Amino acid sequence: MKKQVVLAGAIAALLLNLSVASAEDAAKKDIVDTAIAAGSFNTLVKAIQAAGLVETLKGKGPFTVFAPTDEAFAKLPAGTLEGLLKDKAKLASILTYHVVPGKVMSSDVAKLSSAKTVQGQDVKISTAGGVRVNDAKVIQADIQATNGVIHVIDTVILPSM
Fold first, then answer.
1. List of domains in the chain
2. pTM
């Protein structure tokens, strides 16, 4: 029994060290590298590359990115993503609509009713039933990067065109 308690304690310490190391590693990466490392933003990263925004989002910042997951992009109507990947200007407009200048943590987001995006239009923010940006629900908040923060959303948000 004593060996099991010691073993359980050693495992818990190891897991704690791994999670601290992961958080420290994430804090050493910029927004683009953090998104790549997460593995759930492959479509977003592909779109950022196609729009020519990699250098910008690797820049000094700080930026707040409302990052749609691969599943969020999969919700778009058939052919939408393919069409956007061919229209660099429209794609860049949509992607920069997901970015707010400055580092806005979840505690700050909860105090806002809107925020001006890099694209120029405002996104609506509500906290009824969880934090929402327009129609997208924030499913994970405060992923730290060296040049800002990422909040994961479940839907691609679209500006007025």
1. 30-153 (2.30.180.10)
2. 0.82
